[in-house]
Write a structure and sequence with these properties.
Blueprint (H helix, E strand, L loop, with lengths): L11 E2 L25 H14 L5 E3 L10 E4 L8 E7 L7 E9 L2 E9 L4 E8 L8 E7 L7 E8 L4 E9 L1 E5 L8 E8 L3 E10 L2 E10 L4 E9 L5 E9 L3 E10 L2 E5 L8 E2 L16 E5 L15 E7 L5 E10 L4 E5 L7 E6 L2 E6 L5 E9 L8 E5 L3 E5 L12 E3 H4 L1
Antiparallel strand pairs: 1-2, 2-4, 3-4, 4-5, 5-6, 7-8, 8-9, 9-10, 11-12, 12-13, 13-14, 15-16, 16-17, 17-18, 17-19, 20-21, 21-22, 22-23, 23-29, 24-25, 25-26, 26-28, 27-28
């Protein structure tokens, strides 16, 4: 049975040099692990934070970033003196996100402001020169909770030793990059109201305001579950939106900039973009190109109930013209949490045979067994069989002695992939 799994991870970083009440020690980092430009600055900022932040405060970081950082130090106004921006949560104050601003003054740091955002989850943070005048704006995205689709975007400019808010608007997803090739960063923003109007819009930032450069409508009925910014196979920057439709179907909408405007890549009736169950877009082979997840019904199950169909999953690269290429096929068992990658020469040629506590992949052409896996409790496993993988309680094995067309190394646990 297809299992719809959503993994929502909140990474809350506890500052070990500040806190007395933090228990999430697995995610604890100290100031010496935060990238600040010199040890002297580390010591100075650390001293001020010890005095200012109350016990129980937590540093917070962006959950989507591999590099975890809570303190950002830059000279954003090019006056020769650096500013420090600290993201933290005060657990005694409804756990809302705070933005603390410090300014370098001689050999010391001075706290200029401490802004409570009114929101509990950090979604986006960037210091970026949006206008091309060498002064950087601060872009902050927050939400009421990690599962909230709607978020709030703030843009600040630096004026007279303080941050001044210039933009405050809702959004679902945001990316800042040069989409139109004018050597200036653009803001690609997904927003709207479900069942009415949903859009992806490209903006420039000019004189404290967002100016619309191009807009494209999205499916109004889609409930956006996964938004990924990446590249197409031909190198074009693109936005991938995986949205739920109806009871269990999913539509992937790809937005890119081409010939002076935003467009949607491919057609909604494309068998990969529209799929029977959720399968999220991601860079499955770590080559910088985002693959779109799709699936097809295996031979012999055309008339089976949807919940009983063992789908073969596909991951495909798209180009700006809507053409696509399959990068990987796999059989995935979401209940037992494993998958088997299929060699390219067998793409579209594999079906599934269910066994007692096992499954075989079978050739569509001659019905030969291509791969077989069984599972059993650890205490019942017989060592004479070939062990493929094991978990805490289960051994996955094959009792086939001859070499098959799909090697044993093509068997993987889902937990190893993530």
């Amino acid at each position: 049975m297809i299992n719809k799994c959503k993994t929502l991870i909140i990474l809350v970083i506890c500052a070990s040099f500040v806190l007395s009440g933090c228990t999430n020690s697995a995610n604890t980092i100290g100031l010496n692990q935060v990238q600040i430009q010199s040890n002297k600055k580390q010591e100075d900022i650390s001293k001020i934070l010890k005095e200012f932040l109350q016990p129980g405060a937590e540093f917070i970081t962006l959950k989507k970033e591999d590099h975890k950082e809570s303190i950002f130090v830059e000279d954003i106004d090019q006056d020769g003196k650096q500013e420090a921006f600290v993201l933290y949560r005060d657990t005694k104050e409804n756990k809302q996100v705070h933005l603390l601003v410090l300014k370098e003054e001689g050999e010391k740091w001075k706290i200029l402001s401490d802004t409570a955002t009114g929101f509990n989850t950090l979604d986006y943070f960037k210091l970026k020169d949006l206008e091309g005048n060498n002064n950087k704006e601060l872009i902050l995205g927050v939400s009421a909770g990690d599962s909230e689709v709607k978020k709030e975007l703030f843009i600040y400019e630096w004026h007279k030793s303080n941050l001044v808010k210039t933009v405050n608007r809702s959004y679902e997803g945001i990316d800042i990059a040069d989409y139109n090739g004018d050597k200036k960063p653009d803001l690609l923003i997904v927003d709207g109201e479900r069942n009415k109007l949903q859009t992806a819009q490209l903006f420039s930032y000019e004189k404290g305001q967002l100016k619309v450069l191009s807009s494209v409508e999205l499916n109004p009925d889609s409930f956006h579950e996964n938004i990924v910014f990446g590249k197409l196979a031909d190198g074009k920057k693109a936005l991938y939106i995986d949205g739920g439709l109806g009871a269990h179907s999913m539509l992937t909408e790809i937005v890119a900039y081409n010939n002076g405007k935003l467009i949607k890549v491919g057609k909604e009736d494309d068998g990969t973009l529209f799929k029977a169950y959720p399968l999220y877009s991601r860079d499955i082979n770590n080559d910088g190109v985002v693959e779109v997840g799709g699936m097809y019904i295996t031979k012999g199950f055309e008339d089976a109930a949807m919940a009983e169909i063992p789908f073969i999953y596909t991951y495909s690269d798209y180009r700006i013209d809507g053409s696509k290429q399959i990068i990987e096929e796999r059989y995935t068992d979401n209940c037992k949490k494993f998958y088997i990658t299929i060699p390219p020469k067998l793409y579209g040629k594999v079906t599934v045979k269910k066994l007692d506590n096992g499954v075989s992949l079978i050739s569509n052409l001659d019905e030969k067994t291509l791969f077989k896996v069984k599972w059993i409790n650890k205490e019942s496993y017989v060592a004479s069989n070939t062990k493929l993988k094991e978990t805490k309680d289960t051994v996955f094995y094959t009792d086939t002695k001859e070499d098959l067309s799909i090697p044993n190394d093509n068997f993987h646990l889902l937990q190893d992939e993530f």
